[in-house]
Amino acid sequence: MEGGDATVAAELSAVAATVAGHVPELSSEIWALLTHDIPELRGDHIVEKLLDASIEENVATLLHVFGHGLVPDEIRAPPAAVEYAKRLAQRGVSTIALIRAYRVGHRRFLSRCIEQLASRNTDTALNTEVTLRLVDVSFRYIDRVSEELILVYQQERDRWLLTQTAVRPDASGNCSAATRWTLPRPSRPWATVFAGIILA
Q1: Do 154 and 190 touch, CB atoms closer than 8 A?
Q2: Which domain holds residue 96?
Q3: What is the C-alpha to C-alpha distance for residues 26 and 21, in angstroms, rounded to an integer?
Q4: How many CB atoms lie within 10 A of CB 75?
Q5: How many domains are there within the chain?
Q6: How far apart, in Å, do the first and last CA atoms of the chain sit?
Q7: pLDDT tens-digit map of 1-28
Q8: Residue closest to 23 by CA, chosen among 70, 78, 83
């Protein structure tokens, strides 16, 4: 069993190393797919650039996890992914679009890895085991990062709304202390509302 696990790990590491040599191209493919399939993610040049950086860092991080046999549950979201979630929160783009982006991107990422695996090896049994490991590890990574980013989004959205709407103009168009107001906080945390999305 241990020998089999070592063989699977070695093959997965080899696949990761090969795909890692094409991170910019794969990231561009995923970016084009996301901006085409999810309208909420396109139209703002700055945010689109952040999306590109987020994709590239996520791809590189996950390949690193594959290559070194790391535990995906202990990996934190890449800095660019955190910043991207904050920008979406500031612009009112829903967390549904954010989580869908990870699902769609995950599908394309897996396809590329499986294609590379098939081109390397004709051992059906080994390829099946490596594919199962690919799916398991990558899903756990996406699940972990998505959960973290939903919390980041919620916190940034709350902060942004409070700072942007702390002062409301009066009838003359001027702002005064008398017209200051704050938004009520939601009765349920957004992370709870969208927990089903991650686990679906």
Answers
A1: yes
A2: 2-199
A3: 10
A4: 17
A5: 1
A6: 31
A7: 345 789 999 999 999 999 999 999 999 9
A8: 78
